[in-house]
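pinned: reference chain
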Amino acid sequence: MDDVVRAAGFLFAIAGLLTYGVILYNGLIRLRNDVDRAWANIDVLLKQRHDEIPNLVETVKGYMQHERQTLEAVTQARIAGMNAGSLGQKAAADLMLTGALRGLFAVAENYPQLKANENFLRLQNRITELEERIADRREFFNDDVNSYNTRIGQVPDVFVASFMGLRPREFFKVSEEDKRQVEVKFQGQGA
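pinned: its structure tokens
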């Protein structure tokens, strides 16, 4: 009878460990998927913003003939974002595009006719709205990355995460360049 009790206890212990392992595994999969979903949400907004850039550039071209460098920066940043493959590349391209758009909108302040153009105002409002939504999603993404990185670094999850090949994810960070204030150089109509 003692052997049966010990065998049953051993089986319950094994079953408990297996159940606990499955719970850890499922929790880590959920967190990994949360990070992927959070990035996908950002990616959708980035695509929407990229789709608006050609319209914005075409709208301001006629008004900002002497601001070619500003328009090229926006166009190049858009291309970099569309060609980015990895999450890190997309994040860097997004930050570059955000800076280029800030510069464009700051320069646009010097063109009263452009500021009065209904199409420009609509595009500016749309892109500003998308920028705000992207900023919100970045915060959610970083929260999910933080939860994920914390879990895969804690005992006993670290053992299951290692077995699964899970690695820490990078936060969506603002570059040092984006922390600086945008410098606006106005080239007058006679330039």
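why pinned: The two ends are 99 Å apart (CA to CA). The helical segments are 2-61, 68-83, 87-108, 112-116, 118-153, 157-164, 176-179.
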